[in-house]
Design a protein that fits this description.
It is built from six helices and no strands. By secondary structure, it is mainly α. The protein is rod-shaped.
């Protein structure tokens, strides 16, 4: 933008100097001659460049405003989408917790269940919970038994199957 202002100022100054020089030479040389014609041509070229740059500047400003408006609108939509996603995740989490309560899971079994739903292996769950893998395996087995499920795949399918569109 500073470059544009410099260019506009430069062409304006060139045009004004050319115009003043033409007036001065016209009086001093007594009329139209090749020198004055060259100066008139230079002045007109500077004026033309000035007009072109002004039109281009106005177009660029319009495009910039349009882009800023679009960016603002997109950022607002993104923010609203993120809030909606957080709300939905919170609701989904409540649904999972309610189902865990209905299955009468212990707190440890609920924690293991959530970690299983997140895709962690039994070894990873044991590491996160700072317990032995055998303990996690037993808690997962208890969870499956209380829920009437045969394993991890059925647990995941129980909560996610209705979310998938096919």
């Amino acid at each position: 933008m500073n470059h544009l202002k410099f260019s506009l100022s430069t062409y304006t100054i060139i045009f004004l100097i050319s115009f003043l020089d033409v007036l001065h030479d016209w009086e001093g040389m007594g009329g139209l001659n090749p020198h004055i014609m060259v100066e008139i041509a230079m002045g007109l070229i500077a004026l033309g460049a000035f007009v072109v740059l002004m039109v281009w500047s106005v177009q660029q400003n319009k495009q910039l405003k349009t882009l800023k408006d679009s960016l603002s609108s997109t950022q607002k939509e993104l923010s609203e989408s993120q809030l909606q996603a957080q709300k939905l995740m919170g609701e989904f989490s409540k649904i999972i917790q309610t189902q865990f309560d209905d299955w009468k899971l212990t707190n440890s079994e609920k924690e293991v269940g959530l970690l299983l739903l997140k895709g962690l292996t039994l070894d990873e769950i044991a590491s996160v919970r700072e317990t032995k893998e055998k303990t996690v395996r037993q808690q997962a087995s208890n969870l499956y038994k209380k829920a009437g499920l045969s394993g991890r795949h059925e647990l995941v399918a129980y909560f996610f199957e209705d979310l998938l569109i096919y």
